[in-house]
């Protein structure tokens, strides 16, 4: 009895890069969108509070994140735009946009941490409330919202680093939205119907032979 030689079945290509691309893409989208939302939300909250002396009494003052610094909110918008733009470019362009996304996250973290101990906004409000340009805020305290904004910036930074590292594995915008280099075929006029006189006259007006000869 002759031996039977088993024919090995063809192996499918490893799905590792594809799986890694999908996983990193989902993580970057979630991290970037959540980070931008958190940073924008945090800048609308109270970052610091204190008092100013007005007419011999203590006048309470508060400052929102947007009063302290507008950098975190601006960079969060830039980061969100860069996250969307990653899919509209390829190769070197995608790497550059990914770097912008990462830098916007890093800048958001730095600006939020610097604003966590800033008293300039409250000092200006104290000077306005008291009518004394040299007045400063008293009983100064800060909330945790600047650090929440920093966490949002950190999430944007993570999204940018993922895009830099794995962006080459991510899909790009569909080619149907891009202008192809090949010329579009010209539309040929429909041949006139000889049974319809009005069509014959229209063909003659266009300089065509209605008989198709």
Topology:
Layout: H1 16-43, E1 46-54, E2 57-64, H2 65-68, H3 71-85, H4 91-115, H5 120-130, E3 138-142, H6 145-166, H7 197-205
Antiparallel strand pairs: 1-2, 1-3
Care to describe what's here?
Helices cover 54% and strands 10% of the residues. With 213 residues, it is mainly α. Strands 2-1-3 form a three-stranded antiparallel sheet. Strand 1 and strand 2 form a beta hairpin. The longest helix is centred in the N-terminal third of the chain and has 28 residues, at 16-43. The radius of gyration is 32 Å and the shape is elongated. The model is unreliable at 6-10 and 175-181 (pLDDT under 50). This is Membrane protein. Keywords: Membrane, Transmembrane, Transmembrane helix. Residues 1-21, 177-213 are annotated as: Disordered.
List keywords for this structure.
213 residues, mainly alpha, 3-stranded antiparallel sheet, transmembrane
Q: Structural class, from helix and strand content?
A: mainly alpha
Largest sheet: 3 strands, antiparallel
What distance lies between the first and last C-alpha atoms, to the nearest angstrom? 75 Å
Share of residues in helices: 40-55%
Order of SSEs: HEEHHHHEHH
Read across the widest sheet, the strand sequence of neighbours is 2-1-3
Rg measurement, Å: 32 Å
Q: Count of DSSP E strands?
A: 3
Q: Tell me the number of helical segments per DSSP (H or I, 4 or more residues long).
A: 7
